[in-house]
Specification:
Structural class of chain B: mainly beta
Radius of gyration of chain A: 19 Å
Helix content of chain A: 10-25%
Helix content of chain B: under 10%
Oligomer: heterodimer
Order of helices and strands of chain B: HHEEEEEHEEEEEEEEEEHEEEEE
Structural class of chain A: mainly beta
Shape of chain B: globular
Shape of chain A: globular
Largest sheet of chain A: 13 strands, antiparallel
Order of helices and strands of chain A: HHEEEEEEHEEEEEEEHH
């Protein structure tokens, strides 16, 4: 089950040297995806690919994340954390480790999630001043992550298999941040009742990243809007390095900026255990 | 744990020198040295009058009574605290310290308390983690209930409105973590016994059959504490076994004068504990069970009136998020005395039928409700304890507001109820308080 070798980036195949890589399953996936691009893309395959590009790049990864939450009065709050991720299965189980640098009253707090797309996640938080490891219940994926507009599910990704997808059209999406980009527009409806009734996703035709996502409730009111504001290529992996989530009803928005992005670091499995929750691995988080 | 007290001036000077020293050591250290902290003001006002000293204290002259019993304490806590926290990350290891500078307007003094100060490093290809020095340690599964966690607690802070972190007193300990085995091993050796901090009449009233001093065990090698935990995860479920060798954390034993038969002081009888716990996901929430056997082996047959009985303690709990940003949980807890009948008759013989003995089966129910609002900037919290066997209880209420990333305002109350004088929460009935806490973190 555990993949111990780095998987080639989906678009970054050329950057990874070595003929041996061609024998790996990742290669077959990538060529398949390129083949479908030329023909009529299947909505579910598109969503799957975008999901893997957004949430499963590389076999593992780390980044420093700056999060700015702006409320309706323009008041801002900031969070800064280091996030480590390791995939156990492409599109399946993965584990996250988060170390908070700011705000100062939660500095050194750590958070760990074992994501299981087909069941409940397991989450833990560690409070250093009490030396307390506390599991937190994880049944509600739409709870806000650290008081931001991003829900837990938006941080770790909503699995494509939870929704029915249909391709609406292909169009040019114009945005201030990224200019004009060709995009596939996919509409998704949850298979079982959820907090949203439908969502519309714009997937970049070139990078197959999610450019924009709009969530609607049963009365077709906008719940929240996700946008990619910057795209960076790191170690041959295209990455949505700036993301924003807006909640129009509350005039609240959260901007996430990734820096110090790295992939395929060979993060050990043990990093994602209670030991390192209590004893942050300083080589990665400092 | 008594905070280390020094002359404030000299310690401040030493600290300043220390910081200057760290700053001047240059790049090797400066890049990996972080200094943060907070300034906090706390005022906790007493809500009820203290009805007077316990009845058994009638022969205590009024000038010897602790201040709360002579009505000299309208405030439970009134203090300004500056906490400095430093973290040093080097190639070979880490050092962490927390120093609290406290201007205490109730005790009318200024103190420096080293809350944390330990070095940490790994050895044997990361199979061993060593933490040496003053540090908090917590384990076990309960939410504000502790069975196998016998590390020191500060109940004066807990009842008086201080931040949750002050419930855990630090231990001066050597802590070893062993990894790479089928289970993880944690071992904590505390050379000097660290008792719980309990109400003593300085800030909070308490009940006791007589006003007697509590003797700390001699600072000798044999009076150290050993705590051990073995634990492992099976999927997301954590299984743990625990052992403890030390003493009752509360001075539950009575020193009786051999000639007169009169009690002269309290002491901490020897104790060993073995227990186990399991915690894991259940029905979309988290569930836990924990049990422990408290072997009070200074009184093996349970018939010594001056030493507490052996006990079995057990609990089960569940918590889940019921709605977005609303979490609710509950626990049931039981402690059963091994030889209640023998203890009762021994007590009758020694001190008469009115001498207090706790129930054979003490039961407790707790509930925690937390609602977060406005992008989690507001947290409304209620933690309630209720004991069906003792017919007493304790409610902790608080509303915390993050005005900004730096500034946090908390208002809260600690309310106790119960008719008896001797049971845990009822004896605190006169200690009801409401508090305001303002903290600026930097």
């Amino acid at each position: 089950m555990n993949r111990r070798v780095p998987r080639p980036g989906r678009r970054g195949l050329a950057s990874l040297a070595g003929a041996a890589l061609l024998l790996m399953p990742g290669f077959a996936e990538a060529t398949e995806a390129e083949a479908t691009e030329a023909t009529v893309p299947d909505a579910e395959a598109l969503m799957r690919e975008a999901h893997l590009n957004m949430y499963y790049p590389g076999a593992d990864g780390s980044a420093r994340v700056a999060m700015t939450i702006t409320d309706k009065r323009g008041k801002t709050r900031e969070r800064e954390f280091t996030i480590l991720r390791r995939d156990w299965e492409e599109g399946g189980e993965q584990r996250y480790y988060v170390y908070f640098h700011r705000p100062n009253d939660v500095r050194r707090t750590t958070f760990m999630a074992w994501k299981d797309p087909h069941g409940d996640d397991s989450r833990w938080i560690y409070v250093p001043s009490l030396d307390l490891v506390k599991p937190i219940s994880a049944n509600d994926k739409k709870s806000s992550f650290v008081g931001s507009d991003f829900a837990y599910e938006d941080v770790s990704g909503r699995h494509w298999s939870g929704d029915e997808h249909s391709l609406l059209r292909r169009e040019t999406l114009a945005s201030e941040a990224l200019g004009e980009r060709e995009a596939f527009v996919v509409e998704s409806r949850p298979k079982s009742e959820d907090y949203f009734a439908r969502k519309v996703t714009w997937i970049d035709a070139e990078t197959r990243l999610v450019l924009r996502e709009e969530y609607y409730d049963t009365k077709d009111r906008e719940l929240k809007i996700f946008e990619t504001l910057a795209i960076t290529t790191v170690d041959g992996v295209v990455t949505a390095s700036q993301r924003r989530m807006t909640t129009p009803r509350k005039s609240n928005e959260t901007l996430i900026e990734f820096s110090d992005i790295a992939y395929d670091l060979g993060l050990g499995e043990s990093i994602f255990t209670e030991r390192y929750l209590k004893s942050p691995p300083s080589q990665y988080v400092q | 744990m008594k905070p280390t007290r020094h002359r404030l001036g000299s310690v401040l000077a030493a600290l300043a020198l220390g910081f200057a020293g760290l700053a001047s050591t240059g790049s090797a250290l400066a890049a990996d040295f972080e200094l943060h902290g907070f300034v906090e003001s706390l005022t906790s006002v007493r809500l009820s009058d203290v009805s007077g000293p316990p009845p058994g204290w009638s022969d205590v002259p009024s000038e010897d009574l602790p201040p709360v019993f002579s009505g000299e304490r309208d405030f439970v806590v009134r203090e300004t605290r500056v906490q400095w926290r430093g973290d040093v990350y080097g190639d070979a290891g880490e050092a962490h310290f927390v120093v609290d500078l406290l201007a205490d307007q109730v005790a009318n003094d200024a103190t420096v308390a080293i809350r944390e100060g330990y070095a940490k490093f790994n050895a044997f290809r990361d199979h061993l983690e060593v933490r040496a020095g003053r540090q908090p340690t917590t384990w076990g599964t309960g939410d504000l209930l502790f069975i196998n966690d016998l590390f020191p607690k500060d109940y004066v802070s807990f009842f008086g409105g201080r931040d949750d972190q002050y419930l855990k007193g630090p231990s001066d300990a050597l802590r070893l973590g062993v990894f790479g085995l089928p289970f993880q091993v944690d071992f904590v050796y505390t050379p000097q016994f660290s008792p719980d901090v309990l109400p003593n009449g300085e800030r909070l009233a308490f009940w006791s059959p007589a006003l007697l001093p509590a003797d700390a065990p001699e600072d000798e090698l044999e009076n150290g504490e050993f705590a051990l935990r073995l634990n492992r995860y099976v999927g997301s479920i954590n299984l743990a076994a625990y052992g403890y060798l030390g003493r009752w954390k509360q001075p539950a034993g009575l020193v009786v004068d051999a000639e007169t038969g009169a009690p002269s002081s309290f002491f901490h009888p020897k104790l060993r504990v073995a227990g186990a716990s399991a915690r894991g996901p259940l029905f979309g929430g988290v569930a836990w069970v924990e049990a422990g056997y408290y072997d009070s082996y200074e009184d093996e047959d349970g018939a010594d009136p001056a030493v507490p009985n052996s006990e079995t303690r057990a609990m089960a709990g569940y918590e889940r998020q019921w709605f977005s940003d609303f979490t609710g949980g509950a626990q049931v807890y039981w402690e059963g005395m091994r030889e209640h009948g023998k203890a009762r008759s021994a007590l009758d013989d020694a001190f008469g039928p009115d001498a207090f003995l706790k129930e054979e089966n003490r039961t407790l129910i707790t509930t925690r409700l937390t609602q977060r609002l406005n992008y989690q900037t507001v947290a409304i919290s209620l933690f309630g304890f209720f004991s069906p066997s003792d017919e007493d209880g304790y409610a902790r209420l608080s509303v915390a507001y993050d005005y900004s990333d730096e500034l946090k305002l908390t208002v809260g109350a600690n309310v106790f109820f119960g008719d008896a004088e001797e049971t845990l929460f009822a004896m605190n009935d006169d200690n009801d308080n409401a508090y305001v806490r303002v903290r600026y973190s930097f």
